[in-house]
């Protein structure tokens, strides 16, 4: 982002460091000058700033794309500020219309409660739980009641609400907009009033909602929060934003070996963007590593370091080391550690089993037909030898079956 003029007076080294940490990888900081004033005041009074992130529990799990804003929270937390992890159990009942071209179906209370159970546990893999304030916006939203919601709605105009891109586009396209959708940005903005937030974080798609929070704080006589938007992380393909629906994601609950291998699959160019948004290394350390690669060091070394850092964060250092060795074994055509051990009976009368049926029984193919298609594509190996014959039958014995680069099973027939 373009750096703005911050203040007309000299800043201490600690404030400059805090500003640099805030700006790292961010899309926008609005208004930057006000954030600097808050940092200066915090340093002078010894009072930590209140930094808020709200997430609606719309799904049971999160992927590393969601952790971009969590990483920023952790960086600011490490500077001594108070971070508030807000679970939007009330706002999820409304449904966030951000970026939608149709009304989002609200979730039931039961669905929300189930999803919320995992959110904070997963967020704690990034945040320091001992220094994190966890809140649910039903605490104050339920208490508002009908009268309070009407009074809140009187503090924002329909004209300003229609400036929002998704509402504007849907209106002009003749697509329905439900009245309850106008309540979403109001209730999210009211969260900032209830929490007396100094800074609210969100993805770039949340900018409108965050600005509503600033407006409502001023309406309620509070100093308006600053807002910090973070870019949406590109997924494994380096093109689309990370998404489970696009299958270009890394789930934070995925196994260490899979997580490590997926990080290594990204392009060298995307790697540096992931370093900025996902790594806890300093910008100076990343710049030094980038310079080494530019002068001849193998970029794979940098990618391995990133893969180990991310895998360690969501598992542990030992699991990351094991995942690295597993990847080396696979790349050299070896057999990874810890593959599934399966015992299967032979056919009737001790008859050998066809390879297609065997792949299905071992869980390496959804059906015998899919197994045969994999063989046609050259993606099946038995004891490291590529299978070309769909009529292959295996008798009693132990075999290592492999499909693609990552699926293995050691099968004993007999």
Automatic annotation (TrEMBL):
Compartments reported by the entry: Cytoplasm
The residue numbers the entry assigns to motif 'HIGH' region are 57-66
Question: Where is motif 'KMSKS' region found?
Answer: 241-245
Q: Where does ATP bind?
A: 244
Q: Which GO terms describe its cellular component?
A: cytosol
Is the keyword Thylakoid assigned to this protein?
no
Checking InterPro entries in the record gives: aa-tRNA-synth_I_CS, aa-tRNA-synth_Ic, Rossmann-like_a/b/a_fold, S4_RNA-bd_sf, Tyr-tRNA-ligase, Tyr-tRNA-ligase_bac-type, Tyr-tRNA-ligase_bac_2
Q: Supply the Pfam families for this chain.
A: tRNA-synt_1b (PF00579)
Q: Which UniProt keywords apply?
A: Aminoacyl-tRNA synthetase, ATP-binding, Cytoplasm, Ligase, Nucleotide-binding, Protein biosynthesis, RNA-binding
What this chain does, per the record?
Catalyzes the attachment of tyrosine to tRNA(Tyr) in a two-step reaction: tyrosine is first activated by ATP to form Tyr-AMP and then transferred to the acceptor end of tRNA(Tyr).
User: Which family does this protein fall into?
Assistant: Belongs to the class-I aminoacyl-tRNA synthetase family. TyrS type 2 subfamily.
What name appears for this protein in its UniProt entry?
Tyrosine--tRNA ligase
Q: Species name for this entry? A: Rhodoferax antarcticus ANT.BR
């Amino acid at each position: 982002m373009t750096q703005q003029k911050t203040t007309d007076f000299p800043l201490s080294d600690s404030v400059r460091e805090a500003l640099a940490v805030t700006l790292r990888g961010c899309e926008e900081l609005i208004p930057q000058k006000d954030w600097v004033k808050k940092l200066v005041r915090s340093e002078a009074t010894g009072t930590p700033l209140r930094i808020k992130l709200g997430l609606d529990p719309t799904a049971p799990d999160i992927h590393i794309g969601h952790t971009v804003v969590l990483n920023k929270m952790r960086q600011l937390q490490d500077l001594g500020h108070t971070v508030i992890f807000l679970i939007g159990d009330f706002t999820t009942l409304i449904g966030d219309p951000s970026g939608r071209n149709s009304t989002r179906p609200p979730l039931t209370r039961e669905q929300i409660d189930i999803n919320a159970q995992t959110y904070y546990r997963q967020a704690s893999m990034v945040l320091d739980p001992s220094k994190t304030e966890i809140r649910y916006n039903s605490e104050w939203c339920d208490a508002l009641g009908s009268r309070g919601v009407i009074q809140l709605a009187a503090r924002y105009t329909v004209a300003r609400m229609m400036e929002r891109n998704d509402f504007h586009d849907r209106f002009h396209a003749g697509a329905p907009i439900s009245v309850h959708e106008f309540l979403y940005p109001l209730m999210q903005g009211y969260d900032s009033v209830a929490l007396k937030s100094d800074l609210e974080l969100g993805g770039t798609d949340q900018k409108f909602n965050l600005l509503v929070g600033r407006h409502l704080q001023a309406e309620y006589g509070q100093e308006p929060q600053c807002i910090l938007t973070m870019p949406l992380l590109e997924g494994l393909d380096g093109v689309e934003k990370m998404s489970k629906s696009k299958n270009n994601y890394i789930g934070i609950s995925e196994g260490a070996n899979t997580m490590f291998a997926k990080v290594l699959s990204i392009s060298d160019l995307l790697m540096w963007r992931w370093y900025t948004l996902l790594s806890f290394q300093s910008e100076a350390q990343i710049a030094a590593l980038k310079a080494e690669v530019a002068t001849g060091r193998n970029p794979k070394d940098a990618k391995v370091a990133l893969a180990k850092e991310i895998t360690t964060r969501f598992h542990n250092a030992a699991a990351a080391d094991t995942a690295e060795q597993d990847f080396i074994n696979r790349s050299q055509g070896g057999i990874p550690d810890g593959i599934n051990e399966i015992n299967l009976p032979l056919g009737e009368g001790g008859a050998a089993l066809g390879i297609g049926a065997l792949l299905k029984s071992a869980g390496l193919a959804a059906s015998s037909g899919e197994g045969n298609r994999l063989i046609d594509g050259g993606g099946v190996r038995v004891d490291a030898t590529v299978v070309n014959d769909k009529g292959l039958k295996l008798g009693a014995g132990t075999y290592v079956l492999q499909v693609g680069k990552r699926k293995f099973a050691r099968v004993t027939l007999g």
